[in-house]
Amino acid sequence: MRTRLGQLGVSCAAITLLWGCSSNGAPAGQRSPAEQVRREALARARVFHDTARPEVLRGAWTHPTDFTCRYVPIPTSGTSPKFTCELEDGTRVKVKYGNPEVPAELAASRLLQALGFGADRMQLASRVRCYGCPATPFYVRRAAESTPLGELVRDTPDYTRYRDFTWTAVEQKLEGESLEGDSEGWGFFELEHIDPARGGATREEVDALRLIAIFLVHWDNKSPNQRLVCLPPSAHGSCTTPLVMLQDVGATFGPRKVDLDDWRQMPVWVDDTGCRVSMASLPHDGGTFPKDVHISDGGRRLLASRLAALSRADVVSLFTHARFPGRVEDWVDAFQQKVDQIASRRCAS
Hints:
By secondary structure, the chain is an alpha+beta fold. The chain has helices at residues 5-8, 33-43, 101-115, 137-145, 203-216, 260-265, 297-308, 312-321, 328-344; strands at 65-72, 82-87, 92-96, 121-131, 162-172, 177-178, 226-230, 242-246, 276-277, 293-294. The chain has a 5-stranded mixed beta barrel with strand order 1-2-3-5-4.
């Protein structure tokens, strides 16, 4: 059974100080071997995958690409239209189409990558030619999975025919093995268990991750929308480099998904002074994000320094090539206002 803690915004830490329940609510002594492996990897997890790389906001991703692929009829997740497709070299990608999450996920993923966080590789496609795709692959697949309608609806691919999907986001997973235990992904309430003494990220790095989630307004943060991944190479089957990352960031720049007024008016900090952040006012009461989090000054400065490495031209490129609606300059101004909120604040130790 998947956890409901994230859906309810309830933290295991509220029940016990030392992981006295697992992410599916089971007592600590009843965790599965896979959950124990996940917990051990999470304690050693890193937050940053790379140094800040503003150059990823320029270059190849700014040129829309045409893709040709073969439809793969496998189970879907979430509520936004998407399907899995196999490229000519055998690589499987996820194609998201026809919804406001396309520009949001393109921009959020590229920004995370530019700042050095882990992120899936997103590419803007002016056209995806999908052989075997039905007209509405997401909804046909959902119908095929349902009961009893699934007995009537089949999405057996006809690879002699194709459908074209325009202006889509093509997602390729960050290379590495996803670590899952009794539940999928991780919740923000679990970040407190990352232990720098065991090689995990520092408090400042963890706070930088929390703060970028606030910056993006990543309110749809149920556990499956974050991923714990084991980066290659691994030695003797063990995970030498675990990484926590934001995986599904389509419900960002809002909270109503790419809504300039909402995003511009959403403050970074809870108060006029101090460094408290919260998502309690957002949908689902902030999901897995704890109700009241104090950001360390080191974490604030760390994210501020990486954001400062982005030029205005970089941010213009970010919103332009993700095809954000409205005036790009308005989005860039709102972006800079949030950067200024972080850079100008001073936090207690």
